[in-house]
Amino acid sequence: MSDTVNLVILGASGDLTHRLLLPGLGTLLKAHRDLRVALIGAAADDWTDDHWREVAAAALADGGCAADRVQSLLKTTRYVKVDATSADDLAGLVSLPGRTVLYFALPPAVTMAACRALATIERPEGLFLAIEKPFGTDAASAHDFNQLLARVVPEEHVFRIDHYLGKATVLNLLGLRFTNRIFEPVWNAANVERIEIITDEALALEGRAGYYDGAGALKDMIQSHLLLVMAMLCMEEPARIDAAELRDLQLHVLRATQLWHGDPVAASRRARYTAGAIGDNEVPNYVDEPGVDPSRNTETLAEVTFEIRNNRWAGVPIRLRSGKALGDGLRSISVVLRNLAYQPEGFRNPAPQNVISIGLAPEYIHLGLSTNAEGDKLDLEQSVLSTELGESAIRPYGEILDHILHGDPLLSVRGDIAEECWRIVTPVLDAWRDNRVPMDEYRAGSTGPSCWM
Asked: What is the domain partition of the chain in residue ranges?
């Protein structure tokens, strides 16, 4: 990039900025030394420029950014104390020369208020907005937010951030799906029995009650991250890898997605962890965690089964699951192929099913095949072809920032896609709100409720 891009972070004093955003930027700057960024931190705290530089330097170094590169960036960076919802304060941040990315590292309600303020002031043509999830709190608020953003900047200048789309393994789905002849012919309902996308975390609440207790596992993970991963896994083949093509195809999948058998009660399960231990760490009952309001009845484990009602996928159950304080911490995609219609007589046991496993953390691809056993050639056992995928040198937030700074929306969530994700899960949210689905329990450190096994 030949021109310098202004990266203005609203909420610069927050956890997201120093824990994820700036280290991600550090990995990007390390990989692309020609990238020119003018960094500005903005927040309501009484920070000085020097304190901001200390925070930025430590976070950029955490991403592996070289000392000389960090020092070069720090020479021009500054900190601005602002009220993010003040039109006057925002006017001073967006009236910078050149292209400006306004990154909202803020709670959703504050971000919406800031955008309402932006709509009342003069805005330069080169203004881009980067907005963290959750995008709205339900289908109606997501629609209203989209309508508001349309008054502020063009849709192609809005980057709705879902850092899962920046994960190397998720991006690898495109290569796996569309550049291997061995997979494409079997990627359909005639050959696939079921699909599972699971992102279980060993971590418990870890002090995030302020956000998590108001969201829960369904909104935090399934409504956004996992539905988008599902769309990339199951979409039709693109003619080219670009933003318009990929996002159109993702939308087509999501528009065809419904709850399994259309029943939010039978298709969903929820649970909450009780006291237990993860390794050497004692974990309290979720409702006793600091900041938790038991009356919210927030789940820490959610599971929903969907169906994509099109010719490729009709009849294939797709299970999405995510939760906290789970001992195995399994994070993977499993594509389970159907058994053959006929197995020759004479083998001593049924052939194991072929399973394609894609690890999200750690990153790997495993292909389970049926083979003759070593001891008795008429016994069948499963052998696994396996490859470990090297971690990307650029962290997910760095990948996201790379596309934002270059004005490429490939890894951002388009407005209609955000609304479609809310449409899909709304019947489940309604059923849970009406307590039509029981709240099961599981011990922290276990693999989930015993009644789910």
From this structure: 5-162, 167-394+413-452
